[in-house]
Amino acid sequence: MVRADKIILAASICMSLLTTSAMAMSKPVTIEDQGSFMAGGTVVTSPGTYDGTKPMSHDGETLHGDHAYVFYQKPVKAHKNSMVFLHGYGQSSKTWESTPDGRDGFQNIFLEKGYKTYLVDEPRRGKAGRSTVPTTISAQPDDQLWFNTFRIGQWPNYYENAAVPKDKESLDQFFREMTPDTGSFNEQVVADAMAAVFEKSGDGVLVTHSAGGGPGWATAMRTAKVRGIIALEPGTFPFPQGEVPATEATSSPFPASGEAVPMDEFMKLTKIPIVVYFGDNIPTEPTENWGQDNWRVRLKLAKKWEAVMKKYGGDVTVVSLPDIGIKGNTHFMMADLNNEQVADAMEKWMKKKGLAE
Amino acid sequence: MVRADKIILAASICMSLLTTSAMAMSKPVTIEDQGSFMAGGTVVTSPGTYDGTKPMSHDGETLHGDHAYVFYQKPVKAHKNSMVFLHGYGQSSKTWESTPDGRDGFQNIFLEKGYKTYLVDEPRRGKAGRSTVPTTISAQPDDQLWFNTFRIGQWPNYYENAAVPKDKESLDQFFREMTPDTGSFNEQVVADAMAAVFEKSGDGVLVTHSAGGGPGWATAMRTAKVRGIIALEPGTFPFPQGEVPATEATSSPFPASGEAVPMDEFMKLTKIPIVVYFGDNIPTEPTENWGQDNWRVRLKLAKKWEAVMKKYGGDVTVVSLPDIGIKGNTHFMMADLNNEQVADAMEKWMKKKGLAE
């Protein structure tokens, strides 16, 4: 009977481990400090003179807007450099939290690795919703546009090798991560706020995703506290004025164009190590599969940018994950089933560049 | 010299303690699990048939919206009951995080007390921004309207006894917590999503603030997993049909009206313990100070509601904090300088009602 008890006990421990690995942090983390703050932003004032007897007149009232929102956590015995995470289009800091199927996202994975994490909602998005400019939100259904553009598959089919959970509930959670702009997107407004984030985080590695790539490059041009950049499938790249490549034709509704910046700004990027990761299912030849073609032209632009950066002494590596044996990644590699492998590749690069101190 | 060294050491420890109490968690917390998820919501579909060759047509595409966003943390050896926090008007879950001057908010305070915390962004707010209905966001400056309505003072003057930091930077952080609706506020939509939050949190105490009060009462009518409610200055109260008091005149632009609900729904609230807290600087007589008068009529309505609830067997206590020796509280008692005292009063009540197990 002792033997049966032991088997039951062992089975029960296994069940508990399975539950833990599927739905919870892989190990407890002791947090020394955590909290949130707003960074950067501006203040606008209504015309007229404030009159405290007229609550709804708004004459002379102020609005504080265009700041970033940041949630930070500091584990005990943390590495010196912070990790600052900036989401992409239509997303918020949710991008880096639990995956759609409830596994650890990069927030937990890097905490578990001992890094201070700073998760940002960019200005005019999420909990940083207060904008100095008005806007209209359409509530236009467009889930399928993003399913294809994010290279999960061609609706309603998943790519066979896609490293994502293919159950209905996980897809439901994924679609609900989308959240609208509460004011028009402005790369300079985002970069200004991000520079203020780094004043609070201190020296760190900036991790950007997708449309966060553009303001990410601009952030590193504003502050030397960005010690390195990890860009996950960035949407665009900055080139010196006069060296922006022609925009390549694509079947995607979102063309990939380089951005022109003054040479002295461009040169700032050559002073820090940068790695760019692209996932799987990105073709090399033009295709009518516009979800894939969107990334074909971006990966091609990335390689042109890598060449120009290297010409000016930059330290840039553009990595296609399948080339290093990490397969099936969608545009959301931080949430894919193999996200721990992706995180390991990132940390390996950080260690090589002296950023994991 | 030893003596001088000791003094320097003691001074250094004091400085360190001061820094810690001002800017960090009061003690490290070991987190067994943390993460985020979306709860509830609905799906709408565009008319027409989806055509994968036309990415921008949107015919037959879906939109997943009207869910709540939740960030949860589970400390080791946690109490059985969860604590679920629902913000008020113009706010997000930021309400419960770090205070404007960087001290622990209720998120950290209750984690440190060993509670599982669930911080919610209601549907159509913050990171739960995806709405099934369109909207327009005006970017109308109105900081001063809220400064007065939130009983911090009469702009530009703070109430002398206001338990808030009175430096410019803290006020800047406070104003930036405001974030707009990304779809019209709908109490039933919020309550539906909140009931789904409790399916994930399990049995717990619901803590509501201000305009979160209305959907909070409605949540407890939907699920028995709400084991008790702590309502911080709720904006409204539900009465049995036919027993809603007349709306009292007020100099505030926001009248306080009771809501009529069917008797069987009302009766559900009489089955759980409820405490309602109001802060300081709430007058008993009508006043042209509309920021204060806004709360005079609400506190009066709360007391009428308490009487009706008791008539039907309910367990409700309406507490004015100054009456129990907690002074100077604004509408944001979870962030005021004495917020630990407020949290202690809440926990004392929870223990008395068997909710702190």
TrEMBL record, chains A, B:
Domain annotation AB hydrolase-1: ranges: 83-282
Signal peptide positions (record): 1-24
Keyword terms, alphabetized: Signal
A Pfam cross-reference name: Abhydrolase_6
Classification via InterPro entries: AB_hydrolase_1 (IPR000073), AB_hydrolase_fold (IPR029058), Carboxylesterase_BioH (IPR050228)
Superkingdom of origin: Bacteria
Name of the featured protein: Pimeloyl-ACP methyl ester carboxylesterase
